[in-house]
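Sample pair:
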Amino acid sequence: MADQAHTSLTSETVTSSDFTAEAENTERRFPPKGQPLITGFNRVGLWTLYMKEVRRFLKVQTQTIWAPAVTTLLFLVIFTVAMGRGTREILGVPFATFVAPGLIMMGMMQNSFANSSFSLLAGKIQGTIIDLLMPPLSEAELMIGIVSAAMTRAVMVGGAVAFAMFLWPDVTLMAAHPWAIIWFGLMGSAMLAMMGLIASMWAEKFDHNAAVTNFIVAPLSLLSGTFYVIDNLSPLFQTISRFNPFFYMISGFRFGFLGESDIGNTNHAVMGAALGVFVLNLVLGTVCYRLLKSGWKLKS
């Protein structure tokens, strides 16, 4: 009986010590409560958010990619027919060739805004905003994921529009300065993506978002020199146009194709505009990040 009692006591002691050791190992594996498990840049979470946003608009690509391309191509057809095929030149090229880069850039910017402005707004209205706020993503990672997906959609729309215009007989698409095409295309898409993200935070229903699209984005796009050169305007409206950031995006993008634009015909002049839009995007990015950080109209 004594031996049995000794054996039982020894077993209990071993079991207790093993349990204590296991608890100590658990404490070493998991940080204290309140201390984040993921530190640094959450690459997996960011990639997951990005792919979620991309797959969202690719599921309805007929509406989000091909429909905007067809609509933009109709602008080209209508204005080309109205101006007369091959009878008018602007900046030394046929009207269709002049207007094509502006239409590509306009389609990219408008669809970049449409994509980013939907993400948070849909979540707020449908009550699924928690799916974006709860995951272990910082405000910067949340912003980068949504903006990157919007830029991806913009590039896809731009590629679809460019391909359609390449087949149009009156359009000749050249790459006089590829760096300008890439730079202004990405900067314009990023600018509208961040504007859309800010709009989705402010909006409380789809009507608010539509108001921003109809009364801010669309007028700034159409009055940015897409279909004309600002030299044809009066001095007052030329000055107003030069305060329109869309003007520099579209003119710089056009410079990449034609080697000429309203900004100027030299790399030096366009480089100044390129630097200006970069600074503007830095400001917009800072504002967007601060609003996300504060939880403005996102957290109650």
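The beta strands are 89-90, 93-94.
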